[in-house]
Design brief:
This protein has 187 residues and is an alpha+beta fold. The chain is built from seven helices and five strands; from the N terminus they run βαααβββαβααα. It has a five-stranded mixed β-sheet, sandwiched between helices. Helix 1 (16-29) packs antiparallel against helix 2 (34-42). The chain is elongated.
């Protein structure tokens, strides 16, 4: 059996449409709302992010067909004194998995990190993706920290002082939760 050759190239103008289509598939495949994802893509926000000088993207083709991409950023938090390259997104079409596509994309990331003078490559892996965690662990990536995310509105609500700025409904919900907590401890 002849194995197909994976070709990885930096994303150019001619590749943006393919990358956006794969990005859409990856987002919807991970449970994102298709309408919100389509609006995000149609507004050009993805292309705007890709145009930043610290963001790099590569697309992988298998037999000429786009089957995966990787998006990286340099010094994602901007606080590290040493150069760092972060794999922000890595996606391979499910039908093209187990053909070396992700490994080929990561080879491009290694080259990028070497040119940037980076001694480390960081990967952002969704917590719910066990397959991705296993893949990166097999390649030597280790867990260093947990990145937690909260909605702005939710955090604002949680930070508001008790009794001020809360609607009657919020106060009722808080009181019910408190009573349930007391009742569960009593039993």
């Amino acid at each position: 059996m002849v194995r197909s050759v994976v070709e990885v190239t930096p994303v150019g103008q001619q590749d943006v449409g393919d990358l956006v289509a794969m990005w859409f598939a990856s987002r919807v495949g991970s449970g994102a709302n298709p309408e919100v994802t389509a609006r995000f893509a149609s507004e050009g926000r993805l292309e705007l992010a890709l145009a930043r000088p610290d963001v790099h993207a590569h697309v992988a083709r298998l037999d000429g067909r786009p089957v995966g991409y990787v998006v990286t950023s340099e010094n994602p938090f901007g606080l590290s004194p040493e150069p760092e390259v972060a794999v922000e997104q890595l996606y391979v079409d499910p039908e093209a998995r187990r053909h070396g596509v992700a490994r080929s994309l990561l080879c491009a990331v290694v080259g990028l990190a070497e040119r940037a003078g980076s001694d480390v490559i960081v990967s952002n892996v969704p917590t719910q993706s066990r397959e991705a965690h296993r893949f990166f662990a097999r390649l030597g990536f280790s867990s260093v920290m947990v990145r937690r995310v909260v909605g702005t509105t939710q955090l604002r609500r949680r930070l508001a002082p008790q009794g001020s700025g809360h609607s009657a409904v919020d106060q009722l919900i808080r009181r019910r939760r408190s009573l349930r907590s007391i009742a569960s401890r009593a039993s």
